Amino acid sequence: MPKILVIEDEAAIRRVLVKILSEESEKYQVDEAEDGLAGIEKIKKEDYDLVLCDIKMPKMDGVEVLEAAKKVKPEIPFVMISGHGDLDTAVNTMRLGAFDYISKPPDLNRLLNTVRNALDRKELVVENKRLKKKVSKNYEMIGNSEAITVIKDMIEKVAPTDARVMITGPNGTGKELVAHWLHEKSERSSAPLVEVNCAAIPSELIESELFGHVKGAFTSAVKDRAGKFETAHKGTIFLDEVGDMSLSAQAKVLRALQENKISRVGSDKDINVDVRVIAATNKDLRKEINEGKFREDLYHRLAVILIKVPALNERRNDIPLLIDHFSKKIAGEQGNTPKKFSDKAIKLLQEYDWTGNIRELRNVVERLIILGGQEVSESDVQLFASK
C-alpha cells in the first residue's frame, strides 16, 4: 500500500486531504505533519512514496522542505499545495524537482489524478534504477587487485562527466567492459551506446558507417542512411580498435569532435550531433603517430582521459574471483549448479600464461565445467586446460 505524507499547516485543509486519500478505495496509508519542520523530520525517519506539501508554512516553508528532502531522499515525488498567490512559486518548485502542484481548495479529481500519476512515476523511477543496477552488474569489473581498483576509481570520477576517454590494453582484457561501465554510470545512460568495431569494417566503408550516406553517394547507396554518430545522438559512441581507422575517416572524426557536426557521405549538409566519444585500442598509438598511421591531433582529442586495462598476467590475484564469477554465470546460462574449483586447481590456473587474457580464462573455465568432475580438480586442469 503506497504511503503518503501530507504537510499542511491549515488543519481544515489537512483533514480534507487526509480524508480523501484515506478513503480512496482504501489504497493509501496517509501520515500528516502540521508544519515543514515536523514534515522533514518524518521524511528522514520514514519511507514515503509521495509527499503533498503546502508552500506557505511557519518554521519551514514548502520550498525549504522540498530542497531539504531532495538531499536526503531524492527519489520521493513532491506535489506542492499552493494558494492563489503562490502559483509562481509553485511553478518554480517544479524546476527544483517537484512533480506537480495543486491549488487550494483542492479539486477532488485533479488531486486524485495527480497523486496517481506521481505514484506511477515513482514506480517507473524505482524500476528503472533496478534495471540499471542489473545492467551495471553485467558490466561490472571483477577483481580487487590494485590495477582494477585504480580503474574502478577512475570510472566513478570520469563517468558522470562528458570527458572523452581512451581505453588501452591487449585483446581480451575487458576494454569493452570499461566502455559499457562508463556509459551505464553516465548522465547519458538512458540514451544509446553505439559500438563501432573499426577493425571489422573495410576502410572504404568506414566513413559511411560512421557518418551515413545519401542516396547515390556510391554504387550500393540505394537510399539515405544515418551513420553511427547520428544514431548515438545524446548518447555515447564507442570506437573500438580506433587505431585501425583510415586517415581519411580520422580527419572526419576530428572535425566531428571539434565542431560537433558531421556530414553524410555524398552530402555537404551539416548535421549537429551531441555524442560522448569513448575509444579503445590494443595498439601503441604513439608508435602509430610516429609512423604516420594515426593523427596526433585526433589522439589528443580522444585521449582526454587515459585508462589502461592490464593483462591478466599482471593481475593474477584476481583469477580466483574471476573463476568464481564465470562459474556462476555459466551455470546460470546452462541452468546448472555452479561447480566448485579445488584450491589446487585454482592455484594451477593462477600459474598459467594467459596470453588470451580474460576471454581465454572464461573459455577455459567453461571447458572445465563441462568436462571436469563434480569438483574441478588439479588433474582436470592438467587434462583439459592445457595450452
How is this structure best described in words?
It is a single chain. With 387 residues, this protein is α/β, with parallel strands linked by helices. It folds into 3 domains: 3-134, Rossmann fold; 139-310, P-loop containing nucleotide triphosphate hydrolases (Rossmann fold); 313-384, Helicase, Ruva Protein, domain 3, CATH 1.10.8.60. 46% of the residues lie in helices and 14% in strands. The chain is built from 16 helices and 14 strands. It has helices at 11-22, 36-45, 62-72, 87-95, 108-138, 146-158, 175-184, 206-211, 228-231, 247-259, 285-290, 296-302, 319-334, 343-351, 357-371, 378-384, and strands spanning 3-7, 29-33, 50-54, 78-82, 100-103, 165-168, 193-197, 236-240, 261-262, 271-272, 276-281, 305-308, 340-341, 375-376. The strands form 4 sheets. The protein has a 5-stranded parallel beta sheet, with helices on both faces. Strands 7-8-11-6-12 form a 5-stranded parallel beta sheet. Helix 13 packs across helix 15 (357-371) and helix 14 (343-351) runs parallel beside helix 16. The radius of gyration is 28 Å and the shape is globular. The termini are far apart. The model has no long low-confidence stretch (mean pLDDT 90). One of its GO terms (molecular function) is ATP binding. This is Sigma-54 dependent transcriptional regulator. Keywords: ATP-binding, Nucleotide-binding, Phosphoprotein. Residues 161-304 form the AAA+ ATPase domain. Residues 2-115 form the Response regulatory domain.
